[in-house]
Design a protein that fits this description.
disordered N terminus, about 260 residues
């Protein structure tokens, strides 16, 4: 019996569609989303790669100022874990019911440093009334925006405690985050900047002029927490990994201290 060509084509299409359904692989598990302070970019990229290599799974990270990320999370951004560079922005999430309270922990510590382009040679000892304005000459001081960026907030607190903030306040180049301040110094667009010690360590284009006294600003601590409603087994597994011995070794290699131990030197 002669078959109609249209029926043959319809049968072939239906058969092909059925095979596609049968051969289609299972939907991949959703990637974990980490929102972390810009100053953790290098170390978190290393940890994410280590976690993936050891079968933990894929993690997608978004880095920016803690203030920017915190506001995004409050507004519904799809983050699973948040790491802030100060307590205030984690407190902001807690007040808005945006984190799992029981998951919150202090993870890391850091130090605040004054940096200059690597090809400069001037020196300056940080202390009460130190002549920072004179060292800037006609240039500007690069730092995270002191109105909301943690590194900038710490920097303003330190300069205020040392009695030099008023002399440089109108000469601050306000960056969107601490890595932005670092770039300004790397490029020679600012003769000096205030960043974390770990930021200065990731580039040969800047040098540390001096370290700010720990007594000049509140302790620099990085709290971490799971975002509310995101505490799946996969998220909790990666969150635990961030406090593991393997992660601790990576933190030390990049110059971070542990919140449970002494600050890095």
């Amino acid at each position: 019996m002669k078959r109609h060509p249209r029926k043959i084509r319809s049968f072939a299409f239906a058969l092909g569609l059925g095979l596609l359904v049968l051969l289609d692989p299972p939907t991949a598990a959703a990637e974990l989303r980490l929102f972390a302070a810009a100053s953790t970019t290098t170390v978190m990229d290393e940890l994410i790669a280590l976690y993936d290599r050891n079968g933990g799974g894929s993690v997608v990270a978004s880095y920016a100022s803690s203030s920017t990320l915190a506001k995004q999370i409050v507004n519904g951004a799809p983050a699973d874990i948040f790491i802030s560079a100060n307590q205030s922005w984690m407190d902001h999430l807690a007040k808005n019911g945006a984190i799992e309270p029981a998951s919150r922990r202090d993870l890391l510590t850091n130090r605040l440093v004054l940096v200059a382009p690597a090809d400069t040679t001037w020196t300056l000892a940080i202390g009460p009334g130190f002549p920072l304005a004179a060292a800037l000459d006609n240039g500007r001081l690069a730092m995270g925006d002191p109105d909301h960026v943690p590194a900038g907030i710490y920097g303003r607190q330190a300069l205020g405690a040392l009695g030099v903030w008023d002399a440089v306040a109108d000469r601050v180049a306000r960056a969107a985050d601490v890595r932005g301040a670092l770039v300004l110094v790397e490029r020679g667009e600012a003769p000096a900047g205030i960043v974390y010690a770990t930021d200065a360590a990731v580039t040969p284009k800047v040098r540390v002029v001096d370290v700010f006294p720990e007594t000049s600003h509140p302790p620099i601590r990085y709290p971490a927490a799971i975002v509310v409603g995101r505490a799946t087994p996969e998220v909790e597994r990666f969150f635990a990994f961030l406090a593991s011995d393997a992660a601790t070794a990576v933190y030390a290699r990049f110059g971070f201290g542990l919140a449970s131990g002494p600050a890095p030197r």
